[in-house]
Structure formats: C-alpha cells, structure tokens
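Narrative of activities, Objective 1.

The group set out to show that a structural description can be obtained from nothing but a protein's sequence at a throughput compatible with the screening campaign. Below is one input-output pair from the validation batch, recorded exactly as produced.
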Amino acid sequence: MQVVETSVMSQVGHWNVTDSHTLGALAKSLFAWPKGVTANTRRLLLQTAETALLKLCIIKIPADLDERRPPKYEIPRALLGRESHVKHLVLDLDI
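Output recorded for this entry:
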C-alpha cells in the first residue's frame, strides 16, 4: 500500500475533477504494465491506486456561489459512491 501511495503522490498531487473524468482512467494512467502481470494483480493495484487517490490527493470540484441563493455544487460522476473516501476536498467557487 505504501509503495502505491508514494507513487500516486509523486504523480498526482491534485485532481481537478470534471464530468469527463473517471477515477479508473486516472488510476490506469499511473502504471506502465510489464509483461507477465496477471489480471488479478492489475485489478488489485488499480483498486489500491483508486483508494490512494481519494485518500491523499487534493480533489477540486466546481461550485456555484451566488449570494441570492444557497451555495450549490454537484458531486461529479467520477466520485459518486466513493464520496466518503475523499479526504482533501477543495471547492472551486464560481462567484
């Protein structure tokens, strides 16, 4: 776990999440797979990388701030179902 976490932090310190992003695609981009790596090993490493991304990276999502109405933001599809795993969240305020 520590090796994957260190690799994640060295490659992705922050993630500006948009609707076109997926957590799986970001995790896949972190690895260059040598020959002989089994599908089970890849799956385990990708799951570990996804968890590390949510736990360690600064995740930025857009938010709309208008003083005439309550603040509004939507959880991007890339984070749906995994919101509780996000440890460092930044709202990109559109004022």
